[in-house]
Every structure is written in C-alpha cells, then in structure tokens.
Amino acid sequence: MDLGRSAYRIPADRAQKIPVFVYHFGSGPAEGCLAVTAPAGWKAALPEESVKLTPGGRLELALDVDLCGPAVPDHRTCGS
Q: Which one of 25, 29, 43, 62 is most buried, counting C-beta atoms within 10 A?
C-alpha cells in the first residue's frame, strides 16, 4: 500500500503542521466546525473558525501536531 500522501512521520522533538483536506460531496452548501482528539501525551489543534464549503468544494487546513509535553484536550466550540 502506498501511503506517500496519507502517512506522516512526526518528529518527537518539534511541532509540525500536517495538511488536512475537507471535502463536500453534497448538493447544497455546508458549514460546520472541526475538532481533533489526540492520543495521551500529544497536542493537536485545527483552526478555530468554522468551515464553509460549496457543493463539490475542497478546503485545505493545517493540523498542528506536537508530541512534546502533556496532552491538552480541545473542548472549544465553534466561535469560542
């Protein structure tokens, strides 16, 4: 299996941004918020703003991942 575009090696000594793509295959506009849950000991965050997509739309976001330090759960709600 070729995971060249889907798998990442994340260095343990520094934070890294990983591209994440959101697609909308529906027939009407879509809007919502995204959240991420990371394993214990990791920090992970997505942009806080809500995501808006038109039908057939695609949006690239940056997932911030840091393996250093304690995990911090993301309990934000959209717009907070």
A: 43
